Each structure stands twice: as structure tokens, then as C-alpha cells.
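Async update (no meeting this week)

Hi team, since we skipped the sync, here's where things stand on the single-chain job. The sequence we agreed to prioritize is pasted below, unchanged from the tracker. I ran it this morning and attached the output directly underneath so nobody has to dig for it. Comments welcome in thread, and please keep replies under the output.
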Amino acid sequence: MISKRQYLKKSRLYLITNENIEAAKKSLQAGSDIVQLRIKEKDDQFFLRRALHLRKITKRFKKILIINDRIDIALLVNADGIHLGQKDIPIKEARKLLGPKKIIGKSTHGVEEAKDAVNEGADYIGIGPAFSTKTKIHYKPLKINTIKKIIAHINIPYFIIGGINLRNIQSLLQCDITKVAIFSSIIKNENPRLQTKKFLEKLANENDINRKS
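Output:
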């Protein structure tokens, strides 16, 4: 049985979900590797109930569960880890609360933030936004060359995030960028299971894409 950190290295499709746990379940059934629960503007009891429900699902499918921001919720449901933003508590302090076995990820938007996250002890980073997205309105989309430069400066797993869909993912795959985090294109799709399979097919076929380019 591989460790959670080894699992991170081989993972390609990182799902982000809101309170729509049913859509997340369908995506996990279809093959998403990791799921992050991110709930905003809801009370703590609502967040906790959804987290407990998703924890049961991820255990059943043997998938990694990450909780966005809320270390208390992550501990209460025994999640596999936490994802932190640039304005959240430092990784060092989060590690004191979570212990050495839990995964800690961090959002980054440039080379220096990515290097800092590595030095702070992040297990993985999110890099973005790759494309225009309503969830990252304060950040301009990164250029492909910038994303490649960030990747070249780190030695931990990464997931490209932000506005990725079945069309624009091609520009990432053509540059051998094959680890992505998806929210709207799956969770808000009328058929999350089929949509997930389509993304996985794209990711599986990236070698064919590179040979043609």
C-alpha cells in the first residue's frame, strides 16, 4: 500500500467541490484521485456535516480528502490533509496542529510563492489561475511559460488550477502539464461522472498529444 505522499505524486485529477457532495461522489466513482471540500458562507455545522459525509465516501473509494482552510474540520473528520491560501496560517503552524502524517497543500500564484511553499514544508502546491475564473477574480491568468517556470523551480507535486475546461486543457497537455485541479467544469456539469471520464481520457492521452505536436 502506497503512502499518501506517494499517492500525491501519481495523482492527476484533483477535484474541488462545494456542498454538492453527490456530484463529488459521482466524480470520485469515475476516477478523480483527490477531492478538496471548499465551503464558503455556510455555518460550521453545515460544513462539518458535509465533511463527515464526504469522509465516508472517500474512505469507501480509497481516495484522499483535503479540507480547504479549516484545520478544525479536518481534524474532526480525520481528513487526509488541509489546503491553505496565501493569507491563511503558516504551514509551520498548521503542521504543529496536524502532525507529520497529514498532507498540507498551498495555493501559489508565482515563482516566489511556490518556492516559499516548498521551503515552508508544503506537500504539494496549487498553481494558478491558469485561465480566467470567478473564484480567482483578484489574480490575472498565468501564462503557460510562467506555469512551466514555476514547475521547474519546485520538487514537490503540483496541480494547475483555475478555469480549466475540456477545451483549454489542451494547451496545458501540449506542454506536458498533466496534473490539474477542477471545480466548475465537473461539479457544475449536469453529468459529473461522464465529465470526469472525459478529463481522465484527455490526461491519459497526453503522450499521444505530445507526439503529434
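Quick observations from my side:
The CA atoms of residues 133 and 163 lie 5 Å apart.
The beta strands are 13-17, 34-37, 64-68, 81-84, 103-108, 124-127, 158-161, 180-182.
Reply here if anything looks off.
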